[in-house]
Amino acid sequence: MNAAVRPEAELPAIIKALYERFGESTFVRQHTAESMPTLWVGRDKVMAVLRYLRDEASPRYEMLLDLTAIDERMRVHREGQPASDFTVVYHPTSFSGNCDIRIKVALRMGDLSIPTAIPLWSSANWQERECWDLFGIVFTGHPNLTRILCPPTWKGHALRKDHPARATEMEPYRMSDEIQDREQEALRFRPEEWGLSRKSDTSEFMFLNFGPNHPAAHGVIRFALQLDGENVLDVVPDVGYHHRGAEKMAERQTWHTFIPYTDRIDYLGGVMNNLPYVMAVEKMAGIQVPERVKVIRVMLAEFFRICSHLLFYGTWAVDLGQLSPLFYCFVDREKAFNIIESICGARMHPGWFRIGGVAQDLPKGWDKLIREFVEYFPKRLTEYDKMVMANSVIRQRTRGVGVIDTAGAFDWAMTGPALRATGLEWDYRKNRPYSGYENFEFEVPVGVNGDCYDRAAVRVEEMRQSCRIIKQCLENMPEGPYKSDHPLATPPLKEKSRLDIETLINHFLGVSWGPVMDPTEVTMTIEATKGLNMYYMVNDGGIGSYRTRIRTPSFIHIQAIPFLSRGLMLADFTAVVATTDFVMADVDR
Question: Least buried of 9, 180, 207, 384, by fewest C-beta within 10 Å?
Answer without folding.
Answer: 9
